[in-house]
From TrEMBL:
GO terms for molecular function: cargo adaptor activity; phosphatidylinositol-4-phosphate binding. Belongs to the GOLPH3/VPS74 family. Pfam families: GPP34 (PF05719). Keywords: Golgi apparatus, Lipid-binding, Membrane. This is Golgi phosphoprotein 3 like. InterPro entries: GPP34-like, GPP34-like_sf. GO terms for cellular component: cytosol; Golgi cisterna membrane; Golgi membrane; trans-Golgi network. Coiled coil: none annotated. Gene3D superfamilies: yeast vps74-n-term truncation variant domain like. The gene is GOLPH3L.
Amino acid sequence: MGGGPWTWQWGSGRLSPASHVSLSPQGYTSFWNDCISSGLRGGILIELALRGRIQLEPLTARKKRLLDRKVHLKSDAPTGDILLDETLRHIKATEPAETVQTWIELLTGETWNPFKLQYQLRNVRERIAKNLVEKGILTTEKQNFLLFDMTTHPVSNAAEKQRLLKRLQEGVLERWAGDPHRMDRRTLALLVLAHSSDVLENAFSSLTDERYEAAMNRTKEVLDADPEVEAAKNRGTEMIWAILAAFNKA
């Protein structure tokens, strides 16, 4: 698993990749977790959709599946965040439009197309960590790892991290209503992204055995749902389910 529970939040409380990244209390992510990078990019796409900047192209007779529908620009109004606005400019400049799955590959640099390499978002974890340091949520330290020194960013505001963990835990426990569409959209997105980044179990690790089992069973119920069916029930969550579909296919 990753180096700690994956928590997300802009300063205003919105889901977004530039406030919390899955850091261990020691301040670094697990070397073995290669899912976090793509999970972060998926979170960027979700945040832009929730802010009304992008959307999936309208459903048609030919393009019914989430992963066949292109990501279209809805508004190019700046968000005020560097990473989100950089992604927005890439999407605006891309012709023809690309799908959700392709955008995750482009933004992570996992593409064989040399003409698309400019769309990669570079140093995302480092830029997120710097943003969090500026917000007072993380700090910066040097740690020695045998043969080399590494800059790490330990959590300095544990209360903020615990608040977001509590939000996720309560979403599948106290506030659970048996239907993902009765969950807050950002809590649903947080659940999907934590799963996609392989850090979800860590988010529930502090629970008692009984509550842990209940949380995991309800989470499984959400994650095992058919994204196509669920997206059709609520168009406001289409991008969230499209991200889950992309990771399910990966």
